[in-house]
Each structure stands twice: as C-alpha cells, then as structure tokens.
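Protein in question filed below.

…
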Amino acid sequence: MKRLLVGLVLLGLAGAKAAAQTNATATGYIQNFEVPERDEAGNLRWKLRGDRGQFLADGKMLVERLRAEFYASNRVEFVFTADAATLDQVNKQANTDTPIRLEGANLIITGTGADWTGASNTFVVRSNVHVIISPERSLP
C-alpha cells in the first residue's frame, strides 16, 4: 500500500501541474491511471485503476470508477470495484458510500458502502450485503 500511495502522489504531482483547480478542496487530478504494487520478489500483489483521481487538499484522493485487483502467485485472486471511493493515503484506508462488488473465483459479494483498512487488509461492506458462493470460475 505504501508504494501505491507514493505512486499516486507522484502521478498526482504530474497531473496537478496540467490540471485546473475544479473546486476549493481540489488540488489536481489524473485520468485513466493504473498503479501496481509488487512484493520484494517482484510479484504483483495488487493493481489499482481509476478513470479519474482527484487530489483533495486534505491529502486524500477521490477516485472515480475504482477497480482494484488483488493477486496471489501472479494470478488475480479478487477484484474490488466501486463507482467512487476516497483513499486516505496517510492512514492507508479507503471508503465508499456507492454500490460495491468484491469478486473472487467462487465468491461474489455486493452491497452498498464499504471500508478497507490496509493495516489488517480487511473489507467491511456496510449495508445491503449479498453473498454468492458458487463453483470456481475465471474472473472478468
């Protein structure tokens, strides 16, 4: 997660130079970005993608159409999607009030609103939670 945050900050600094300030809380934005995180051996741990990331004055980032892929043995293990989410770079947390989807090879969890904590790598889906467990299949 630390590398993701550093990558987002570096991307944001480049994007902020070219971006016009859109409101009083925005400091810049980037579009169509992807940030990977690798372990010490160079294996992919996760990859974060967003259509647009808006840097906020409080150090957080608002990401539109977030897609986070989590890997095991260089294979996608889970995919998390949300229409929008706020990333807290300092506390290594993310949250959203939008509909979410967490999908694995034999598991689909949908709901409304979610919180992710990087320290414990946990997801909490807040409401309207639906869980489907099925035979293993390939991820989208």
The chain is about 10% helix and 65% strand.
